[in-house]
Amino acid sequence: MKRINILLVDDEELFRQGLRSLLGKEEFVREIHEAGNATEFNQQLSLHVIDLILLDIKLPGIRGPELLLNQKKKNDYPKIIAVTGLDGVEVIVNLLKSGIDGIVYKLDGYAEIVKAIIAVMQTGSYFQEKTSGIIQANAHKWDKVPPVSLNFNENELLRAIASGLTTKEIASKLKMTEATTETYRIRLIKKLGAPNTAALLAYSYRNGIL
């Protein structure tokens, strides 16, 4: 994995300092920047190239999902992992619907944060079994996707994406080139009208694919 620039966004300075100290020892980290509120968040993004944002969803003056939605409107935005102490179903569903790339609970510890970072940077998303369970139980809360007929390759691709395989691994599994795999993935997302991986998972559970 290439070395990346990380932005820590949390209003608790002690938490940021502790996480920064630990992440600074990781080989995949190039630079670490911090923000404790929306103003500092926007300043850091204007000053630095950020590959990944570790975002607390409780910030003074603005909620994390609002910051996330503002970022997702841009064509070239960093990957975003929510690092939260909250586990309410509605909170998690709203995060997933807004297009988060991964969710980690603070009580799960530092090792889980590292695992999530690596997974998101390599596969594009990271959802723990607990989060996948929330998606499955609340799939009906996503906007309805018009029924479509998927062919064999599309079904297999959807299963591979949901399992978190990299494009290279999916290509090998489906015996395609990486370029063809990526083309199929883009077509599948457009076909299902799903904006992100969480929505693809919701579609899969709702339609008995997973």
Provide a short characterization of the protein structure.
50% of the residues lie in helices and 15% in strands. The protein is built from 10 helices and 7 strands.
Would you mind describing this structure in some detail?
The protein is an alpha/beta fold and 210 residues long. Helices cover 50% and strands 15% of the residues. The strands form two sheets. It has a five-stranded parallel sheet, sandwiched between helices. A two-stranded antiparallel sheet has the order 4-5. It is globular, with a radius of gyration of 17 Å.
Q: Give me the strand/helix succession.
A: EHEHEEEHEHEHHHHHH
Number of strands: 7
Largest sheet at a glance? 5 strands, parallel
How big is the Rg?
A: 17 Å
How many structurally independent domains? 2
The CATH H-level superfamily of the largest domain is: Response regulator
Average pLDDT rating:
86
- CATH fold annotation of the largest domain: Rossmann fold
CATH class of the largest domain: Alpha Beta
Keywords, please?
single chain, 210 residues, alpha/beta, Rossmann fold, Arc Repressor Mutant, subunit A, 2 domains, 5-stranded parallel sheet, two-stranded antiparallel sheet, 10 helices, 7 strands
Annotate the secondary structure layout.
Layout: E1 4-9, H1 13-23, E2 29-35, H2 38-47, E3 52-55, E4 58-59, E5 62-63, H3 64-72, E6 79-84, H4 89-97, E7 102-105, H5 110-123, H6 129-137, H7 152-162, H8 167-174, H9 178-192, H10 197-206
Parallel strand pairs: 1-2, 1-3, 3-6, 6-7
Antiparallel strand pairs: 4-5
